[in-house]
């Protein structure tokens, strides 16, 4: 079903605009009027990362009049495998600044606003309100649900994308869609909560930083998202409202699933840190520097403990803390008693050895410490995990 355009046409095109956007003007369903709508539109892009990079480039090239970029991160070398809007010269720079500079260089006509910070419950309405459409390319569940819930309240459509490893999903969520013709009933509104009523339990779904992502696939998915935004803004074609595109990049196959409204919306989740890291202030903990000192003492025979790495094997192939044994978090949570027995923490006639647990940044190790403590271990969380080890102990090691 065709939907009503989100934007009224702006002024007539100038000669330079006709030349620049001529390939759009040749498309009958889009044409001059559609391009004038694009030039009058305001679009917010959540995240200037793997999905935000192609989204921003194609929306700027398409002539979207105003782009708002929202991201709280800075450019890191590991981003450059997929976040093609940034370069090596941008490492250490806020992503919103790097992305904005690229957008302005690509199309000086586009007005760009930036917000270098997190989207929070107390600023979401102000940051997202006033836009015709929001594109969500974020990589954590609290922000995704906050974007969806806020836009549902404001009646703003959301173009949503999600990627992990070799798989991706794309859809359009809109709580109050309008049909293109007054005599045609509008389709039912759907939101993220109609697809996934609640976020998954904490720690059950890995992030791209833990599981990886095929970089080129971000371009595929981001391009689809940008296309959906253009269609919504101009009333062209049939958007993905009520449908989810699912990509299996290894098989290079797209499939489609329907989305229907659920009778009752689930309550909004409590926001947590943007990277999904679970607070662990209530746990026994040691710093990376403290771990280094204890590893030195263990090497001299004056300390005795077990260092447990609960990451997956491919992560250890990138960087590892010397002297750690590996049991992935899934195995720990499946049978913590068996892990305690396997690690021989209770030698006959001896004092139970401490179990120091680390992961990449602290989320998974906190879960493991709680489970292993319940199983009778003297478990201690290594705060900040491998990232803290590299930052504070061995900066020559790579991170991811």
Automatic annotation (TrEMBL):
It comes from the Bacteria. GO terms for molecular function: nucleotidyltransferase activity. Residues 260-280 are annotated as: Disordered. Gene3D superfamilies: NAD(P)-binding Rossmann-like Domain, Rhodanese-like domain. CDD domains: RHOD, ThiF_MoeB_HesA_family. Keywords: Nucleotidyltransferase, Transferase. Residues 301-398 form the Rhodanese domain. Transmembrane segments: none annotated. This is ThiF family adenylyltransferase. It comes from Georgenia alba.
């Amino acid at each position: 079903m065709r939907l009503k355009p989100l934007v009224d046409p702006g002024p007539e095109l100038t000669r330079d605009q006709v030349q620049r956007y001529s390939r759009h003007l040749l498309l009958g369903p889009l044409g001059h009027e559609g391009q004038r709508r694009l030039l009058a539109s305001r679009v917010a892009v959540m995240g200037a990362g793997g999905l935000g990079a192609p989204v921003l480039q194609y929306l700027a090239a398409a002539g979207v009049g105003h782009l708002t970029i929202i991201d709280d991160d800075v450019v890191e070398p590991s981003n450059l495998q997929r976040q093609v809007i940034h370069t090596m010269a941008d490492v250490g720079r806020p992503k919103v600044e790097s992305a904005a500079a690229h957008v302005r260089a690509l199309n000086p006509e586009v007005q760009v606003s930036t917000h270098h910070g997190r989207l929070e419950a107390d600023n979401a309405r102000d940051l997202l309100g006033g836009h015709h459409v929001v594109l969500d390319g974020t990589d954590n569940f609290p922000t995704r649900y906050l974007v969806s819930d806020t836009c549902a309240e404001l009646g703003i459509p959301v173009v949503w994308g999600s990627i992990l490893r070799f798989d991706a999903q794309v859809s359009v969520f809109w709580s109050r869609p309008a049909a293109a013709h007054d005599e045609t009933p509008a389709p039912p509104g759907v939101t993220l909560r109609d697809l996934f009523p609640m976020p998954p339990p904490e720690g059950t779904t890995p992030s791209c930083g833990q599981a990886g992502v095929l970089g080129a696939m971000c371009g595929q998915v981001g391009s689809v998202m940008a296309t959906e935004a253009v269609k919504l803004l101009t009333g062209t074609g049939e958007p993905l409202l009520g449908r989810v595109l699912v990509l299996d990049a290894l098989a290079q196959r797209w499939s489609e699933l329907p989305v229907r409204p659920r009778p009752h919306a689930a309550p909004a989740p409590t926001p947590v840190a943007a990277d999904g890291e679970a607070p662990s202030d209530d746990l026994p903990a040691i710093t990376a520097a403290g771990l280094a000192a204890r590893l030195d003492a263990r090497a001299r025979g004056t300390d005795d403990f077990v260092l447990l790495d609960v990451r997956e094997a491919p992560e250890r192939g990138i960087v590892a803390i010397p002297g750690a044994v590996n049991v992935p978090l899934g195995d720990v949570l499946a049978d913590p008693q068996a892990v305690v027995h396997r690690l021989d923490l209770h030698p006959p006639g001896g004092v139970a050895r401490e179990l120091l647990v680390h992961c990449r940044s602290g989320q998974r190790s906190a879960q493991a410490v709680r489970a292993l403590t319940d199983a009778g271990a003297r478990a201690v969380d290594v705060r900040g995990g491998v990232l803290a080890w590299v930052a504070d102990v061995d900066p020559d090691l790579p991170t991811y």
